[in-house]
Amino acid sequence: xxxxxxxxxxxxxxxxxxxxxxxxxxxxxxxxxxxxxxxxxxxxxxxxxxxxxxxxxxxxxxxxxxxxxxxxxxxxxxxxxxxxxxxxxxxxxxxxxxxxxxxxxxxxxxxxxxxxxxxxxxxxxxxxxxxxxxxxxxxxxxxxxxxxxxxxxxxxxxxxxxxxxxxxxxxxxxxxxxxxxxxxxxxxxxxxxxxxxxxxxxxxxxxxxxxxxxxxxxxxxxxxxxxxxxxxxxxxxxxxxxxxxxxxxxxxxxxxxxxxxxxxxxxxxxxxxxxxxxxxxxxxxxxxxxxxxxxxxxxxxxxxxxxxxxxxxxxxxxxxxxxxxxxxxxxxxxxxxxxxxxxxxxxxxxxxxxxxxxxxxxxxxxxxxxxxxxxxxxxxxxxxxxxxxxxxxxxxxxxxxxxxxxxxxxxxxxxxxxxxxxxxxxxxxxxxxx
Amino acid sequence: xxxxxxxxxxxxxxxxxxxxxxxxxxxxxxxxxxxxxxxxxxxxxxxxxxxxxxxxxxxxxxxxxxxxxxxxxxxxxxxxxxxxxxxxxxxxxxxxxxxxxxxxxxxxxxxxxxxxxxxxxxxxxxxxxxxxxxxxxxxxxxxxxxxxxxxxxxxxxxxxxxxxxxxxxxxxxxxxxxxxxxxxxxxxxxxxxxxxxxxxxxxxxxxxxxxxxxxxxxxxxxxxxxxxxxxxxxxxxxxxxxxxxxxxxxxxxxxxxxxxxxxxxxxxxxxxxxxxxxxxxxxxxxxxxxxxxxxxxxxxxxxxxxx
Lengths: 434, 307
Fold this sequence. Notes:
The structure holds two protein chains of two kinds. By secondary structure, chain A is an alpha/beta fold. Chain A has helices at 4-20, 22-50, 66-79, 105-117, 149-168, 174-180, 208-230, 232-242, 245-250, 255-287, 296-323, 327-353, 358-364, 370-378, 386-414, 424-433, and strands at residues 53-60, 91-96, 123-127, 139-142, 193-194, 200-201.
């Protein structure tokens, strides 16, 4: 007979131990700080790097494109300056290099390569005569292949200039010509909706914050809350085992009551964390006019999946803590579990690109990944269908029940075992032996 | 009433038979001492009483109840290797352990105050466990064991590793528990403590019961074949004596087990050396323990006393 009063006593103590620790307070502040810094630092660092001026040599074998290219570069550079004269983006300083009469192109390329190596220039580009033929290719030489803005700019601008050159033969005036080849803009819109009274509402412009940032934030919140609150269970169980506290406790309550209490306690901690973070995020969103970015239904499902994920991974970590007899063995046992837990993070990008794909649907129905991936999918469009949400919930619920049952069996045997750590095969034997 | 009733209990770990067909009955209100060499099955027996381990065969009744954790709330258990949460304060820890036994907060508070004062720890109530000395931690551990006023208290090696002052304080605490009516079972390697404190003594050796009774009963079974002597020549005076079976040498005093009449032995001893002290006595528990547990212990003799 389970004494729920004892389960509650353990849960309250575990909860208090967790929230009273300095680590918890630091963790509360640290997690959003890391998230903010990981968003801000690359942007800031990227912007800073992008402000450099890049010197680029152009070998124009067509003999027709460089003057226009240089002109467009000047316009681009002017657009990279703020009103106060400060720089906001990368600037490209072009100069033309000609192949001397009778000279070999290889020699020029070699000389320019050396100049790139000597940091005299950033890159050089060849505009071959064949540019106006059927398979036009620009040749861009650099030792910084990961820098994207310059090759992208060249691709786009030279492409337009080549079209313009072709049109020139049609005697169109140059200004009209540039207007004719002007870049297109694409508006991303959602679908039209019909309200209850039959009124059709116009499609809303898709907003990257709603369509991309919100799902990502919800998914990362789920991931970080589970990892930061469930994994300390491993240490707590190991500490009780090593210091023999577990034997004292087992003199007062059953292993299942102890384990259930620990689980309820950390689920409580995860609820506090999610309430704090979600309220903070909501306040932030409302302030910036995104109060409607997340629906109440999404929040309810977030909490449901958080509880299930905490149950699955909490049971797993408790079982490992009970089976291991030192930290090294525990880490070895944790590695495959962490890979299992991290798997959704490896595939979230393809899921975002095609939320309705077979891969996305299948992956979000794997119970270890369901809490993270279903949370992500529910914030994306098209949203998962009702049967997918229901099936994901049932499978995850069944898995969490199994993990509590199996974890309880491993815990009961492992917690009193000293000496050698168990491996997964032994843990499975304990589960089957009962 | 019987507090603990163990009937035909066996426990095996792999191929090792830890407890073999053990039966034992502990009356309520008594102090029962468990003795036995390391690895003989004491801790396994205590864990089975606590329902932490389940016996392979046999039954254990605790306060009349069996086969469940139902009686656990009425039993306080102090394991051999102690565990306390280092980061918890003394007061909070005692409240936690008391609540796990199902005690009401007000009762826990009253007991906490009583025991902290009794064991001179009142000023440490709000300190964390990690700030306490080893002796203080052991006192806190004992308080945690009895905080819920259990009817049965099981203590595994409660006095080991304590200095004499702290050992005395804990001994007093155990006697206080008995005065309150609790049944106390404790295991010990200190034969002196067992002789002084226990109403009954139980010895387990290689998983089997080899002694069970009052000190008088046990000593009577081993007869009056022992003398304590103090002589000028000391241990050397006993060399080559044909009727000496075994000698326990305590330096200034020797405990001698004889095969003949003590008076005849005394006559021969006086011829060898001046005798300052000669006492015909019963064998000490220590001597009996060593006789049973020494490596060349006679298996037949063990079987005989075990009956």
